[in-house]
Amino acid sequence: MATGVSALMHFLVDGLCLCCMYLMMPFAHASQILGIFLTYNVLAFLTQPLTGLAADHMKRPHWMLLASGTLLTLAVLLAAMARAIESLGAWSMTQAVVATLLGIGNSLFHAWGGRQTAVRTGNDIRALGVFVSTGAMGLAVGMMFCSWGLLHGFVLALWLLAVVYVMLDERSGKTSQASFMEESGVQTWNVGIERLLPTTVFGIVLSMVVLMTFVGLRSFVGESFASDITKSRGIILVLGGAAMLGKMAGGWVARRLGLWKALGGVLVVALACLFLRETGWTAVLLGIFAMNCTMPMTLYLANTVLRGREGLAFGLLAAALIPGYLLTMC
Prior knowledge:
The chain is mostly helical. The chain is built from 14 helices and no strands.
């Protein structure tokens, strides 16, 4: 239940951030819009290794959730105040502040949620997939249906679910500092992976570099599938749904087939669909689905390599998304 609540909060946080930024766009110049999104993305993604490292060392991790909710709420309130006094030019003065608050709040939430999911479930790859999956749909909904009413609804729902999560977590009685490796060890469904775990600093760094490179390439390929498509409201929702279902299904596929077979299989399907994407929507959607299936797999591996540093592992993979995204913009 706690995983489901955190996944719903992930939907709300990503939807809230994009909804708020899109509501600012009508009042901004073209150069300001670029600055808003650049500020937000840099702070939301590239700071996650730092916020993830902080999450690993927090004795009371839920303070990070509360800090995230507070910053996001302040961003929404500031945007609403600027809208109310629009004639005074408040938008131009507050856009950077709102984007900054959204970016840092988003970063704090993802670092908290990524670590909590790994620790509380024993790095269960299915739970990892469920948590990361909902953000894609949140982005689509926040962008397509952005309104002040929806934005305020996101904020209220986020705080309600945050209270529910903290209550559930406190009731469970688990120590906040317990590492998944201490609780459950290497999971029996993936027997053999312990022989591949790096034991030296060089091996750990090399393993993470390989995983981050793969994540960056996955981001680039995933964006390439739909880069030439004219995106109407319906299409954006369908693409977001395909990404969400892929991330959610990836963990279950890995549990069923084994990590390496599942990873190899979905990569073959994704690459085949990449070459066939001009043939129609079936190849595009199947390719996006298959590519996103790898997300919980790479996160599982990163948590295994950096056992005891699950927040840092999540943050490093999140930061690795940005280079691939920027490549598609060139």
